[in-house]
Amino acid sequence: MTLHRLLALPLAAILLAGCATSGQAVRAEAPPSADRIDEQARARRAWWTQYTTWGFTGRAAIENAGRGGSGRIEWREDGDGQYAIALSAPITRQSWRLVGDLASGAGRIEGLEGGPREGADAEALLRETTGWQVPLRRIGDWVRGMPAADAPVAGLVHDAEGRPAGFEQAGWTVRYTGWRAGATGGPDLPAKIEAETAGDAGRARVRLVIEDWTFASAASAP
């Protein structure tokens, strides 16, 4: 599925609306310039580099080839590339925790029937044990409002504020459907994000609603 089918409307379109009382056309605000978009992108990456540890809490819905699940999510990532993801379903009271290493790709899942499982490829381990396909290596960048730096990006579009609205990367289509104001002096932060791919095993989709962010610099990290 292409980005253009996912986006409801070309984000750069400028519409002229007729004034009912005067008959005069009112021009909408001009879209952000390329320079402004580039400046915001650089400022976003620079802002994130000051934090060695960050995380968020919210809700997640994961689907893969007709199988899916949803619940509360807690995400934490450290400056050394270690991350931990906890997902719990309040209704079924099921929960699991994935601990991984971005550099090696390895991971360990706890909370599974039969005990913890480990593997050299956390993404493959997650898919094998839960049936869910999640782009663990790159989604940490995506949730922070920017493409990952290790793969080409296509179809990058922005909203009227110059924030990313969506792009395609590593076979996934990413779309931002909500933003929230960031900390003082910082960029706006994603509040809703979707990532979707059509793989050999069928369509996979990850949807996140981010309710709260946490940050810690090198000096303040525990």
Short account of what is shown:
The chain has 222 residues and is α+β, with helices and mostly antiparallel strands. 16% of the residues lie in helices and 46% in strands. It has helices at 3-6, 34-48, 122-130, 136-142; strands spanning 16-18, 25-27, 51-64, 67-77, 82-89, 94-101, 107-110, 117-119, 153-158, 164-169, 172-180, 189-199, 202-217.
Radius of gyration: 19 Å
- Count the domains: 1
| Share of residues in helices | 10-25%
Main beta-sheet strand count, sense and barrel state: 11 strands, antiparallel
**H/E element order:** HEEHEEEEEEHHEEEEE
Helical stretch tally: 4
Query: Regions with pLDDT < 50 over 5+ consecutive residues?
Result: 1-24
Mean pLDDT metric: 83
Shape: globular
Structural class designation: alpha+beta
Superfamily (CATH H level) name: Lipoprotein localisation LolA/LolB/LppX
Instruction: Please identify the top-level CATH class.
Output: Mainly Beta
- What name is given to the CATH topology? outer membrane lipoprotein receptor (LolB), chain A
Q: What fraction of residues sit in β-strands?
A: over 45%
Please tell me the CATH architecture by its name. Clam
Q: How many beta-strand runs?
A: 13
End-to-end separation: 42 Å
Enumerate the strands of the largest sheet in spatial order, edge to edge or round the barrel. Answer: 8-7-6-5-4-3-13-12-11-10-9
Task: Provide an overview of this structure.
With 222 residues, the chain is an alpha+beta fold. It has one domain: Lipoprotein localisation LolA/LolB/LppX (outer membrane lipoprotein receptor (LolB), chain A, Clam). 16% of the residues lie in helices and 46% in strands. It has 4 helices and 13 strands. It has helices at 3-6, 34-48, 122-130, 136-142, and strands spanning 16-18, 25-27, 51-64, 67-77, 82-89, 94-101, 107-110, 117-119, 153-158, 164-169, 172-180, 189-199, 202-217. A hairpin with a 6-residue loop joins strand 1 and strand 2.
